[in-house]
Write a structure and sequence with these properties.
It contains eight helices and eight strands. With 213 residues, it is an alpha/beta fold. The chain has one domain: TIM Barrel. Strand 5, helix 5 and strand 6 form a beta-alpha-beta unit. The structure holds 4-methyl-5-hydroxyethylthiazole phosphate (TZP) and magnesium ion. It is an enzyme of class 2 (transferase).
Length: 213
């Protein structure tokens, strides 16, 4: 186990869709100041050179805040810059292969939409699971909806921590109380907000209240 439950309370996933002329670095710094506990760099269209450059800068920033820094999809880049870990989906490299490549110390997160996928990912060495979309989301076009019942069943079926993702925000995080999750993973609830730092503070405290229920 390479990450603790408390690291996963408010997991921020980056998205350059809402940069509005600002740098991603600056937006990530705001979520870190506001109390994000985990950062995933998610780049879908950046060339290799810029991806690496950016990843190194944000890695350094996360180190300053003592927050784990992981990369979406790109196992090679994770190894090259010695990031804390990687997050893979069901269509990316399989968790066992990722573990074989990165060794025992890196954090491996896996997206799961069913109990079977969740159990399999744990067996193959995942450290945590991202389960969703738990609510409708406009952020990921091909997101599959996972109901709250399935979310709960997954939490009961595995012993690694689970984060809920997809359409989660200040207005609905409370609905996840009692599901067994360790935290939430969000994009637009932080990065699409006019005051990112304040939105992060607010969502962190609402998430802690939800988890305490
Ligand atoms: N995986 C499942 S839903 C989703 C991802 C990456 C999008 C989450 O974005 P938002 O804005 O928090 O709904
Ligand atoms: Mg992926």
């Amino acid at each position: 186990m390479n990450c603790e439950k408390k690291d996963l309370i408010l997991y921020a996933v980056t998205d350059r869709h809402w940069l509005n002329g600002e740098t991603l670095y600056s937006q990530v710094e705001k979520v870190l100041k506001g109390g994000a506990t985990f950062i995933q760099l998610r780049e879908k269209n950046l060339d290799e050179e810029h991806f690496m450059e950016e990843a190194k800068e944000i890695q350094e920033l996360c180190r300053k805040y003592h927050v784990p820094f992981i990369i979406n999809d790109n196992v090679e880049l994770t190894a090259a810059i010695d990031a804390d870990g990687v997050h893979v989906g069901q269509r990316d490299m399989e968790a066992g292969d990722v573990r074989a490549k990165l060794g025992p110390d890196k954090i491996i997160g896996v997206s799961a939409q069913t109990v079977q996928q969740a159990v399999e990912a744990e067996k193959r060495g995942a450290d945590y699971l991202g389960v969703g979309a738990v609510f409708p989301t406009g952020t990921k076009e091909d997101a599959v909806e996972v109901g709250k019942e399935v979310l709960k069943e997954i939490c009961e079926a595995v012993s690694i921590p689970v984060v809920a993702i997809g359409g989660v925000g200040a207005h609905n995080v409370e609905e996840l109380a009692g599901s067994g999750i360790s935290g939430i993973a969000v994009i637009s609830a932080l990065f699409a907000q006019p005051d990112i730092e304040q939105a992060t503070k607010d969502l962190r405290s609402r998430t802690e209240q939800m988890l305490a229920k």
